[in-house]
User: Fold these one by one.
Assistant:
Number 1:
Amino acid sequence: MRYYKSPMSNSLADLLAKKDFDEPPEMQAIKQFVADRFQEDVEVLVRERDIIVTTSSAALASTLRLNVTELRKIAETEKRITFRIR
């Protein structure tokens, strides 16, 4: 059995070269806000309709929940922001 490379196939390197690995601006804004204000790192997942912020502590999640309006304004988004605890 012989295998040949079709002119239509792309190598993994070709696909990755075309991929945009920049963080969405909402993600950058939320991470920066938490780092500046609370000196903590958070994980942020930006999806089509919502943003999920994962924290390491319940106290931080509760504090962020109280500041969700300010967080939306800083991130310049109207997406629903959900908080999770690791």
Number 2:
Amino acid sequence: MVDQPKFTLDFSDKRLLENQPQIDRQILSFVVYSADNQDNNSWRYGLTRINGTTAEQVQTEVQFFKDVISPMTFLDDLIMATYYEEKGLLLDALTTYENLMKKAPGIEGFEMLYNSFVWRRLQKIQTREMGG
């Protein structure tokens, strides 16, 4: 179990965009290695970073939500997590679900929603790997 990050990927780091064409989506590929054993590694993961007009549209929509529903309630966090998932912003959805569980520890329903989100993502990965 890892309790502290060994590496943090900062998506606002301009070096990620160096020598990249101006496109709306950029795929970042990475592998996670064990600090103790370089032979112990994960599958290759890919993250899609949105840029340009797509990013601007999402930022505008998120700001609208935050302006309308401030301060955020538990229900608002659930709405935002669903919004992020529907837009394919899976790290944002995951982070929102995790923050919701931290805000309200012990509420089983939130943990069930989080687990359901993770399960849906795993099913999509398995379907993709099986050529479906």
Number 3:
Amino acid sequence: MMKDWLPIIRVLLDNLLLRNGIGTIRGILGGIVVSGFLNFLSPLLQKIKGIDLEKLTAFHIICLGILIMNLPYFTKKTSFPPHIEVAFKAIDEAKASGLSDIHIKQLYRQVCEMAIQNIQEQPTSPLSEAVNVLGEKMNQP
């Protein structure tokens, strides 16, 4: 039964690590710490009636930690920079005024090209510069 879930869990973790790697790692580590803490306190907690820790495995606690640490990313609405939002609103107004679909598609394409151009013109970080230097050195004979 667990073998059926492994591919799904692997894809889910890959996506979570790409989207919010730090939060996912914190959730995993937090789940491990809480699981160890609950195992340490299990003799004391077993005296309390109504709490059955035997059914709660480390896997469950780690999944709960990952979920808690990624909740802001599941609920957060992604937004574009203000100048792109203004361009999208202008395109929507043009569409409402009866502009043809071909022109609307061209406008969307122009906005995408503008966004890509802005990304390419941004200053590089020291890490990306180091990667570029290493790449150049590896390509030299």
Number 4:
Amino acid sequence: MDTDSFRREVVVASAAAGATVALSLVFEFVLAVTPSFYLQAAPLSVYFLYLFGHGRLPDRADQPTSGSE
């Protein structure tokens, strides 16, 4: 695993973890409700979809596109 792909994995994992914590805090302190575990953990499903489905995408899916083409 090269440094760029490792960095990308860490950023995606951090974003999923941060979104999960933020969503739980919003439910607890802003909305004052207790939702189900599945609703609180919903951002993690996006991470697992990325984790297990990312390797099946073509290489060109990771390349940024330029608007000048």
